[in-house]
Amino acid sequence: MEAERRQWEARYRSGERPHDGPPSTVLVRWAGPLRPGRALDVATGLGRNALFLARRGWRVDAIDISPTAIRQAARRARARTLRVRWVVADLDRYRLPRARYDLVVNTFFLKRRLLPRLMAAVRPGGLLVVETHLAPFRPAADPWPARRAHRLRPGELRRRFAAWEVLELAEGYFTERGQGRWLGRIVARRPAGRIRRRRP
């Protein structure tokens, strides 16, 4: 939606770098040893996860709503001579292909109505990595983001991926690189058979 695009454009144009830095530790742990294939990084921002995958030989599609973020991420890729297919798109409207990707990455971007489409974009046997904010048991310990709609509910990932093979699932307060946050994380493999539909 246009309001969301303007919001993220303003943040990136001001020099803010939300969730920038090294790639997700969960992604590094699971994707690092895998044989490279085709990957999708949604809400890529400045491309930290997309660049990590491209550096390891993955063919990466990286999507973000902010043209400014994509331009900056593309400059980083060129400076490292890495190839990524950068896409400026609103994921509410963008048509994701079905069963195309060996790996789909969704970090720090929670839209519940998008999750079934991301799951459908994973090929049978492929992986989906989700890492984002969790509604804290002690809100004062992690007050951001303020809107509860942008935070996972405890147990939500387990329920949503009940039909998948869960390789890693963690919820709690994590301290990494000197920063503490309430997070929910899951790495799940799409089964080879047909997936039953679940309500969002």
Brief overview:
This protein has 6 helices and 7 strands, in the order H-H-E-H-E-H-E-E-H-E-H-E-E. It has 200 residues and is α/β, with parallel strands linked by helices. Strand 1, helix 3 and strand 2 form a beta-alpha-beta unit.
3D architecture notes:
With 200 residues, the chain is an alpha/beta fold. The chain has one domain: Rossmann fold (3-Layer(aba) Sandwich). 26% of the residues lie in helices and 28% in strands. It contains 6 helices and 7 strands. It has helices spanning 2-13, 25-31, 48-55, 67-79, 115-121, 156-160, and strands at 38-42, 59-64, 85-88, 101-107, 122-133, 165-176, 179-189. Strands 3-2-1-4-5-7-6 form a 7-stranded mixed β-sheet. β2, α4 (67-79) and β3 form a beta-alpha-beta unit. The longest helix has 13 residues, at 67-79. The chain starts with a helix and ends in an 11-residue tail after the last strand. The model is unreliable at 195-200 (pLDDT under 50).
